[in-house]
Design a protein that fits this description.
Elements: H1 6-62, E1 71-72, H2 84-93, E2 97-101, H3 128-134, E3 137-140, E4 145-148, E5 159-163, E6 177-184, E7 190-192
Helix pairs in contact: 1-2
Length: 215
């Protein structure tokens, strides 16, 4: 039988206590980091959302009150995609375009490689292939970018992926990558759909709805 010395017997519980304190400290630090990261994500989105909402209003004014590019929330009004190309050019101009990729956005440096892409057939405009090679991308002077949902048949839709910080990470849905869908109600009022990850695969703990941020 091995006998522990008195000093070793004393050290054992001390070491155990130290380990417990280290684990507690690590948990506290990680919690604080997550809180600040969550706050940063929300603040970053709020700032971008404010700019893009204003740009939508400005573009609407430039186009005489009708974008010709919207999903209708009214059963009595049809959705309209006829003038999406003109709308996006007007909209992006209000956001100070610095770079434009008509295609091959990944190779052209307009988009990064994202952690997730859409896999549902109805959301194929946000698939890896479409975003990387076929969707139009406008990169703004503030490094944010919009990737126009361009499916099926290369027809632009009133929906775009908003990357609030461009090629900078984490390039993750609900953190710096969102989906904004342009809606119009029966009174002609334009707004963005509340689900801001629509057609994108939501990430755990990421922002999903406007109400998660704008409370």
């Amino acid at each position: 039988m091995v006998m522990l010395s008195k000093s070793a017997a004393v050290k054992a519980p001390v070491l155990a206590l130290i380990m417990i304190n280290v684990l507690i400290l690590s948990f506290v630090v990680n919690t604080v980091i997550n809180i600040f990261a969550d706050r940063h994500t929300k603040d970053q989105f709020k700032e971008a959302y404010g700019r893009y909402s204003q740009a939508l209003s400005d573009a609407l004014e430039d186009l005489g009150g009708d974008t010709g590019c919207f999903y209708s929330s009214s059963k009595n009004v049809k959705s309209n995609f006829d003038s999406c190309d003109n709308f996006y050019k007007t909209f992006a101009k209000r956001l100070n375009v610095a770079k434009y990729c008509d295609k091959d956005a990944l190779a052209g440096g307009c988009v990064p490689k994202y952690r997730e892409y859409a896999i549902k057939p109805a959301c194929a405009g946000y698939s890896e292939s479409m975003i990387s090679k076929f969707d139009q991308v406008f990169v703004m002077g503030d490094r944010s970018s919009i990737t126009v949902f361009n499916y099926p048949n290369g027809i632009q839709k009133p929906m775009f992926a908003l990357d609030v910080n461009g090629v900078i990470g984490p390039n993750k849905v609900g953190y710096d990558l969102f989906s904004l869908v342009i809606m119009r109600n029966k009174n002609g009022h334009y707004y963005f759909y509340p689900d801001i990850t629509y057609c994108l695969p939501p990430s755990k703990n990421g922002i999903k709805y406007l109400t998660d941020v704008l409370k």
